Amino acid sequence: METRIAVCPGSFDPITLGHLDIIRRAATLFDQVIVLVVINPSKTPSFTPEERVEMIRKSVEGMPNVKVDAYCGLLIDYVREKGAVAIVKGLRAVSDFEYEFQMALTNKKMLPYAETVFLTTSTQNMYLSSSLVKQVAMFDGDITDFVPRAIYNEVRERLCKKQGGPQ
Predict the structure, then answer these.
(1) Integer angstrom CA distances of residue 72 from 64, 99, 166
(2) Residue 158 annotated in active site
(3) Which of 6, 40, 114, 156 is the most buried (most CB within 10 A)?
(4) pTM for the complete prediction?
(5) CA–CA separation, 77 vs 71, rounded Å?
(6) Is 161 annotated as catalytic?
(7) What gap in Å lies between CA 55 and CA 159, rounded to an integer?
């Protein structure tokens, strides 16, 4: 039987507990999940691709069927290269759906055998985004309930103004 590989793409700048919830759930549905840091040249992230990959690795420790990678290019090319059968995307609200649906249809047109699987976020993470984490951390707010414990200090050190973060 063929290994069912799914790719879970995102910027993960930084990874949140909401992302981690989607990854955990995807790992129960597929034989292997590749969490992919997609490098978008039009964005200015707070963390380098290498830092994001390392933070995700720390966060998914103990999940043997989850791998982490980074890629700059068309997602569908990466999916094809890895022999993945699915793209997993998390949805927080209806506002996420319109954009993700458009992307799913485009990806399906370009690679018909790859399905996009939408997983709805758990209710405790509906409001959570990397942007929100950055904003709260920047003003020295408590991000304990927003990011994995394994990367908490790293995120605070980079983002908190009082700890030498962005000015």
Answers:
(1) 25, 20, 26
(2) no
(3) 6
(4) 0.93
(5) 10
(6) no
(7) 14
From 23, 25, 29, select the one nearest 4 (Cα to Cα): 29
Task: Give the C-alpha distances (Å, rounded to integers) separating 96 from 55, 145, 160.
Answer: 24, 22, 28
User: In this predicted structure, what is the pLDDT of residue 163?
Assistant: 53
Q: Which residues of the chain have pLDDT under 70?
A: 161-167
Among candidate residues 46, 59, 130, 134, the one labeled active-site is 130
Considering 42, 43, 95, 162, which one is annotated as catalytic? 43
User: Token pair of 66, please?
Assistant: 């989850």
Convert the pLDDT of each residue in 44-85 to its tens digit: 899 999 999 999 999 999 999 999 999 999 999 999 999 999
CB 58 within 8 A of CB 153: no
Q: What pLDDT is stored for residue 41 in this prediction? A: 86
Quick check: is 43 catalytic? yes
Q: What's the pLDDT at 43?
A: 85
Residue 19 bears catalytic tag: yes
Give the containing element (helix H, strand E) for 120: strand 115-120
Length of the chain as a residue count:
167
